[in-house]
Amino acid sequence: MVCHSGVGLTPTIDGKLHHFSAGGLYDGLVLLIDDETRTYWDHVTGEAVHGPLKGRVLDVWHTPITDVATALQDTPDIELSRSKMPLWGRFLAWIAKGRWQRDKGMIPFFFRRTMGASDERLHEHTNGLGVIVEGEARFYPMSAIAGGVEDAWGERTLAVSIDRRDGIPRAHWVDGSLPMQLFARWYGFSATYRGCQIYGE
């Protein structure tokens, strides 16, 4: 699987370049840490949650997940880069291979130790697409959007479907523009956006 955003942005805060890496886990999700101030950041919302810059919020944008073949179909001239993961990262990727598209799997014990109370409206491993619009979050389980759906958000209509080429769900407004969206498991999305809506509930 690959992630691509088509956006080249420099991570600057107050005009100063910052360098980010994985710094820890919270609610089973990765926290980023910047080298310059040692502040911890929520990698989904962009909010600084601990450290000198606590309370600051970075700009965020969605990075669609896909596979190489689909990315090349959509953008033939796309530049692909491949990072060299450490051995432990390759091992975890091998274990997780193929599981992100299924409603099964395991949460490693060191992830679970960071997690608070779970939202039991759905099984924690349920895959789906989370959409966030002006602070409102809604989760679309894979089973609910198998044939494609249209959903009303105020005066706008959102189309959600699963791309048959790579099996990944995607959403777009009927006018063609894209909302903020995350392909995620329920435990991670519901921990980040507590009390979020579930499509079809």
Describe this protein with a few key phrases.
14% helix, alpha+beta, disordered N terminus, 201 residues
**Number of helix segments?**
4
Gyration radius from CA atoms, angstroms: 17 Å
Biggest β-sheet: count, sense, barrel?
4 strands, antiparallel
What best-fitting shape do the alpha-carbon axes yield? globular
Distance, first to last CA = 30 Å
Which spans of ≥5 residues are poorly predicted at pLDDT below 50?
A: 1-9
Secondary structure tally: strands = 15
Helix content: 10-25%
Q: Report the portion of residues in β strands.
A: 25-35%
Q: Kindly report the average pLDDT value.
A: 86
The helix-strand sequence is EEEEEEEEHHHEEEEEEHE
Structural class: alpha+beta
Q: Name the strands of the widest sheet in spatial order.
A: 4-5-6-7
Write up this protein.
The structure is a single chain. This protein has 201 residues and is an alpha+beta fold. It has a domain at 117-198. It is 14% helix and 32% strand. The chain is built from 4 helices and 15 strands. It has helices at 68-74, 87-96, 109-112, 186-192; strands at residues 2-3, 12-13, 16-17, 20-26, 29-34, 40-42, 48-50, 65-66, 127-133, 136-141, 149-153, 156-162, 169-173, 180-185, 197-198. The strands form 5 sheets. Strands 4-5-6-7 form a 4-stranded antiparallel β-sheet, with no helix packed on it. Strands 14-9-10-15 form a 4-stranded mixed β-sheet. It has a 3-stranded antiparallel β-sheet with strand order 11-12-13, with no helix packed on it. A hairpin with a 5-residue loop joins β6 and β7 (48-50). The longest helix is centred in the middle third of the chain and has 10 residues, at 87-96. The two termini are 30 Å apart. The model is unreliable at 1-9 (pLDDT under 50).
